Amino acid sequence: MVAADIPRGRRGAHETTAIVLLLLGGFLFLVGWLVGVVLLWLSDVWSVRDKLLGTFVLPGGLVAPLFALGFGVSMTTTTCVNGSCTTHNGHTGWGQLPWAFLFVALVVLPILVAVHLARTSREPV
Q: Residue 109 and residue 58: Cα distance in Å, rounded?
Protein backbone atom coordinates (compact mmCIF):
# COMPACT_ATOMS: atom_id res chain seq x y z
CA MET A 1 0.00 0.00 0.00
CA VAL A 2 1.35 3.42 -0.94
CA ALA A 3 1.69 5.97 1.86
CA ALA A 4 -0.79 8.27 0.07
CA ASP A 5 -3.40 5.51 0.21
CA ILE A 6 -3.26 5.20 3.99
CA PRO A 7 -5.98 7.30 5.61
CA ARG A 8 -4.86 9.54 8.45
CA GLY A 9 -6.59 11.56 11.07
CA ARG A 10 -10.11 11.53 12.36
CA ARG A 11 -13.42 12.68 10.90
CA GLY A 12 -14.37 16.23 11.77
CA ALA A 13 -16.96 18.73 10.62
CA HIS A 14 -15.45 19.05 7.12
CA GLU A 15 -15.58 15.30 6.54
CA THR A 16 -19.16 15.02 7.80
CA THR A 17 -20.15 17.95 5.57
CA ALA A 18 -18.41 16.28 2.62
CA ILE A 19 -20.41 13.06 3.10
CA VAL A 20 -23.72 14.91 3.38
CA LEU A 21 -23.00 17.10 0.35
CA LEU A 22 -21.90 14.12 -1.76
CA LEU A 23 -25.32 12.56 -1.15
CA LEU A 24 -27.61 15.59 -1.06
CA GLY A 25 -25.59 18.47 -2.52
CA GLY A 26 -26.87 17.80 -6.01
CA PHE A 27 -30.21 19.27 -4.95
CA LEU A 28 -28.43 22.63 -4.72
CA PHE A 29 -27.96 22.83 -8.50
CA LEU A 30 -24.96 20.47 -8.22
CA VAL A 31 -22.93 23.21 -6.51
CA GLY A 32 -23.35 21.49 -3.16
CA TRP A 33 -22.13 18.20 -4.62
CA LEU A 34 -19.07 19.93 -6.11
CA VAL A 35 -18.28 21.48 -2.72
CA GLY A 36 -18.58 17.98 -1.22
CA VAL A 37 -16.07 16.65 -3.75
CA VAL A 38 -13.64 19.46 -2.95
CA LEU A 39 -13.97 18.78 0.79
CA LEU A 40 -13.48 15.07 0.13
CA TRP A 41 -10.23 15.64 -1.76
CA LEU A 42 -8.91 18.24 0.73
CA SER A 43 -9.34 15.86 3.65
CA ASP A 44 -6.42 13.76 4.82
CA VAL A 45 -8.80 11.25 6.44
CA TRP A 46 -9.57 9.19 3.33
CA SER A 47 -7.32 7.20 1.02
CA VAL A 48 -7.11 7.97 -2.70
CA ARG A 49 -9.29 4.90 -3.35
CA ASP A 50 -11.99 6.26 -1.02
CA LYS A 51 -11.81 9.67 -2.68
CA LEU A 52 -12.21 8.12 -6.12
CA LEU A 53 -15.23 6.12 -4.90
CA GLY A 54 -16.80 9.25 -3.42
CA THR A 55 -16.23 11.19 -6.62
CA PHE A 56 -17.18 8.72 -9.32
CA VAL A 57 -19.94 6.55 -7.85
CA LEU A 58 -22.84 8.46 -9.30
CA PRO A 59 -21.73 12.07 -9.52
CA GLY A 60 -24.46 14.39 -8.29
CA GLY A 61 -25.50 12.15 -5.43
CA LEU A 62 -29.16 11.34 -5.02
CA VAL A 63 -30.35 14.04 -7.45
CA ALA A 64 -29.02 12.02 -10.39
CA PRO A 65 -31.55 9.17 -9.96
CA LEU A 66 -34.42 11.64 -9.88
CA PHE A 67 -33.18 13.28 -13.06
CA ALA A 68 -32.44 9.99 -14.83
CA LEU A 69 -35.67 8.27 -13.84
CA GLY A 70 -37.75 11.37 -14.50
CA PHE A 71 -36.14 11.78 -17.90
CA GLY A 72 -36.78 8.15 -18.84
CA VAL A 73 -40.35 7.97 -17.57
CA SER A 74 -41.45 11.23 -19.14
CA MET A 75 -40.30 10.33 -22.63
CA THR A 76 -42.99 10.04 -25.32
CA THR A 77 -42.74 8.82 -28.88
CA THR A 78 -44.80 9.79 -31.89
CA THR A 79 -45.31 7.44 -34.82
CA CYS A 80 -46.67 8.74 -38.11
CA VAL A 81 -47.93 6.43 -40.87
CA ASN A 82 -49.60 7.80 -44.01
CA GLY A 83 -50.28 11.18 -42.38
CA SER A 84 -51.85 9.67 -39.25
CA CYS A 85 -49.80 10.25 -36.12
CA THR A 86 -50.06 8.43 -32.81
CA THR A 87 -48.35 9.53 -29.60
CA HIS A 88 -47.21 6.81 -27.22
CA ASN A 89 -46.59 7.54 -23.58
CA GLY A 90 -44.46 4.93 -22.00
CA HIS A 91 -41.15 3.90 -20.66
CA THR A 92 -38.40 4.70 -23.05
CA GLY A 93 -34.76 5.52 -22.49
CA TRP A 94 -33.97 4.78 -18.85
CA GLY A 95 -37.42 3.30 -18.30
CA GLN A 96 -36.54 0.22 -20.37
CA LEU A 97 -33.99 -0.94 -17.82
CA PRO A 98 -35.24 -3.16 -15.00
CA TRP A 99 -36.40 -1.06 -12.06
CA ALA A 100 -34.43 -3.13 -9.55
CA PHE A 101 -31.19 -2.42 -11.41
CA LEU A 102 -31.99 1.29 -11.56
CA PHE A 103 -32.77 1.38 -7.87
CA VAL A 104 -29.51 -0.33 -6.96
CA ALA A 105 -27.34 1.60 -9.39
CA LEU A 106 -28.81 5.03 -8.82
CA VAL A 107 -29.88 5.04 -5.18
CA VAL A 108 -28.28 2.25 -3.17
CA LEU A 109 -24.71 2.64 -4.48
CA PRO A 110 -24.32 6.30 -3.47
CA ILE A 111 -25.74 5.49 -0.04
CA LEU A 112 -23.33 2.57 0.34
CA VAL A 113 -20.41 4.79 -0.65
CA ALA A 114 -21.51 7.41 1.91
CA VAL A 115 -21.68 4.70 4.60
CA HIS A 116 -18.26 3.43 3.52
CA LEU A 117 -16.79 6.94 3.75
CA ALA A 118 -18.33 7.42 7.19
CA ARG A 119 -16.96 4.10 8.43
CA THR A 120 -13.47 4.56 7.01
CA SER A 121 -13.18 8.08 8.39
CA ARG A 122 -13.26 6.92 11.98
CA GLU A 123 -10.09 7.17 13.99
CA PRO A 124 -7.85 4.14 13.27
CA VAL A 125 -7.52 1.62 16.10
A: 8
